[in-house]
Amino acid sequence: MMPNLKHPSPVVAVPSEFDEVLSTFESAMRRLAARSNFRVVVSTDMEAFVSFLGSAPGNDGVSPVFNPARVEIEDAFWISVIHHDQVIGTNAQRLFDCTRAGYYDQIRSGAVFGSEPKAPIDLLHKEPGTRGRCSHSGGIYVHPSYRGTGLSWFLPHLGRAIAIRKWRIDMCYGMVFDSLRRTNIAEKNYGAQRVVQMYSGSFPHKAGDVLLWSVESEAGFLVERIRKSLFEISNSPNKQMGDFAPVVRR
Questions:
Q1: Strands annotated E in the chain
Q2: Contact between 174 and 91 (Cβ < 8 Å)
Q3: Of the candidates 183, 181, 190, 166, which has an alpha carbon nearest to the alpha carbon of residue 42?
Q4: Which of 34, 88, 143, 158 has its CA 20 to 30 A from that of 4?
Q5: What share of the chain is helix, strand, coil (3-state, %, to 5)?
Q6: For 80-95, what is each residue's pLDDT tens digit?
Q7: 16-237: which CATH topology?
Q8: pTM
Q9: 12, 14, 20: which is closest to 230 by C-alpha?
Q10: Distance CA 132, CA 96 (A)
Q11: pLDDT (tens digit, 9 = 90+) per residue, 112-150?
């Protein structure tokens, strides 16, 4: 049985008065990274992002969502976490203007994935998706030597906070394959509001058919999580990044 896709409350953008909370959270997250001698870099060079992931140790492909050679990108950025001059983790965020066509309808049209899989893309439900300003969070990569450090929690939380402040989004989307969905990482470490079956079929760099899940969070929901995380980080000066991650995988 398919889950209920209707939003539990109206989706509205986060007002500008929350900018201070978001900026303070970003600063707190940078300081948290520094506790492990990590530093954070934010870049809008998506070609560099694709180039890095294409040869990153332990990575099995590059999402077409963030590849400017495959799709027309209105605005996007990526976060890299660096240790000893080596990129050890990434997350990317891409803006979608969904005021005329909902997010799911943009997936169907090929605007999200580009030419692969070929449009129109047949999703597992008929909903149009959120209308408004949406971000897509993805490209989460953690170097094999740094798995278990909490980066899978750190990266999406910081990336979405920057996206909310930068773009004044209404909703943040993402996608996970079924194998990752079964670990509950999306809800626990990524902090998703809900995870919904979305697509079954072929996908670039994957053998055979795949099952994709949509990872969804309203901006207001994310801001409340950010408030709580900011309080915990600020009041736990001796904790490391991994102490805040509900699931630690090595």
A1: 39-43, 76-83, 86-97, 133-142, 171-177, 194-201, 210-218
A2: no
A3: 166
A4: 158
A5: 35, 25, 40
A6: 999 999 999 999 999 9
A7: Aminopeptidase (3.40.630)
A8: 0.90
A9: 20
A10: 8
A11: 988 666 677 889 989 999 999 999 999 999 999 999 999
